[in-house]
Amino acid sequence: MNELITCINDAVWGYVLILALVGCGVWFTVKTRFVQFRMVGEMLRLLTDSAVDTVEQQVKDQAQGVRSKHISSFQAFAVSVATRVGTGNLAGVASAIAIGGPGAVFWMWVIALMGSATAFVESTLAQLYKQKHKDSFIGGPAYYIQRGLKKRWMAIAFAILITLQFGLSNNSVQANTICSAMQEAFGLSPILVGCMLAAVGLFIVFGGIQRIAHVCAVLVPVMAIGYLLLGIVIIIMNIGLIPQVFKAIVFDAFGIQQVAGGSVGVAIMVGVKRGLFSNEAGEGSAPNVAATASVSHPVKQGLIQALGVFTDTLLVCSCTAFIILISGLYNVPGLNGIALTQSALQSEVGSLGPVFVAIAIFLFAFSSIIGNYYYGEANIRFITPNTKVMTVYRICSAGVMVIFGAIASFDLVWNIVDLFMAFLTACNLFAIVMLGRYAFRLLDDYRSQKRRGIKEPTFHRSQLPEIEQDIECWE
């Protein structure tokens, strides 16, 4: 079974999807005039000022006698980063280096730098086509495919794929990594840890997006800052080795000096796959939570989600990569995944290394589990309002698949994720390429208002008269 899935993955990924990802990233970067580089300052400002839009929306709701449960841009950012910052940053990076060599890190950086423009476009479109849902908003690729492309069948296909990918198979990877780390550090039984994860996860997911947002808003900053600080300390302690690390990454990326792992082709393929798994730019996942944020202009959430890609890959993933490369343990046969990261940390900080990684991966991956769950929930609601279907999904996502991941093999869970990720990404890339012109126009409008001295740009659907009838919000 595992061998069959591996063969299918190699055929599906090849270089076609990789070229599509990089090509779309370059195209969006040019069309947005390098938005991910030129507007970093605005991204940071929006993240700190996100409460303004939420308060304004709450005032409007109260005036209409509606109880508001809108989430802020920061909370939407936290949920999306919670799904990004997880297994991919610790186990995924380690796996990429073990298989593809240090050069895989370079291609992870490339897909992040170009992919952040893709993330901007998909999240801006999600805001544009979002819909009202009870006392909050709901949206994502399924919604802009249906309303923007007028392809209901394709929207349903995407909704099914993202549910299989994030709500189910992705959670098995997170659980697998948590259980492996706990067994390595504390000797705990994987099935015991899996059952505990399932119990806590089910309690949280039955609380809805507001509970998920509040949990992630607390966990994400704590876990990300703590891990980054540790990485910085280790880098400073080994500052003399950093030039050699960069040399190994760049030379290995282009085959100038094969340090470890496979050929240049393997480095590119593994680097792009693990980079996409980690930052999710173009995969169509983050737009689902981006659409729930209450903002005055769609571009605001697009900018914030672009920042999330930088946070994930250029900061957290790079910390893991440097720790592993500094340790030199990536050449050890059979050492892969989270075990490689734990061993690398142990070599740098002693016996507390595996324990720290076990705790960090628990926070990283557990927040990913509850964030991944929401992606599936939003898309199941798109397909059907049946509450029984939702209940079954909740049990499968936070319960059954978590336990499956606890007992399944490392290779099997990662191969399943890669397979669904390929189809999901292809579907979303097609949609955002077709609809990207609206994101470009919205960005031009946003920049125009900023040049006129407007601190908080606003948008009204009448500004896009040709699709005004397809936009439910933005009165």
Features:
single chain; 475 residues; mainly alpha; 2 strands; 1% strand
Q: How does this structure look, described?
A:
The chain has a two-stranded antiparallel sheet with strand order 1-2. The protein is mainly alpha-helical and 475 residues long. Helices cover 77% and strands 1% of the residues.
Let me know the largest β-sheet. 2 strands, antiparallel
Molecular shape: globular
Residue ranges: pLDDT <50 for 5 or more in a row?
51-55, 61-68
Distance between the termini: 52 Å
Query: Going across the major beta sheet, what is the strand order?
Result: 1-2
Gyration radius over CA: 21 Å
Q: So how many helices?
A: 20
Rounded mean pLDDT score: 82
Q: How many beta-strand elements?
A: 2
Query: Can you write the helix and strand succession as a string?
Result: HHHHHHHHEEHHHHHHHHHHHH
**Class by SSE composition:** mainly alpha
Approximate helicity band: over 70%
List the helices and strands and how they pair.
Blueprint (H helix, E strand, L loop, with lengths): L1 H12 L2 H16 L3 H4 L1 H9 L2 H13 L9 H12 L2 H14 L2 H26 L2 E3 L2 E3 L2 H9 L2 H35 L3 H16 L2 H30 L4 H12 L10 H16 L6 H5 L7 H30 L9 H13 L2 H32 L3 H21 L2 H42 L24
Antiparallel strand pairs: 1-2
Q: TL;DR?
A:
With 475 residues, this protein is mainly α. The chain has helices spanning 2-13, 16-31, 35-38, 40-48, 51-63, 73-84, 87-100, 103-128, 141-149, 152-186, 190-205, 208-237, 242-253, 264-279, 286-290, 298-327, 337-349, 352-383, 387-407, 410-451; strands at 131-133, 136-138.
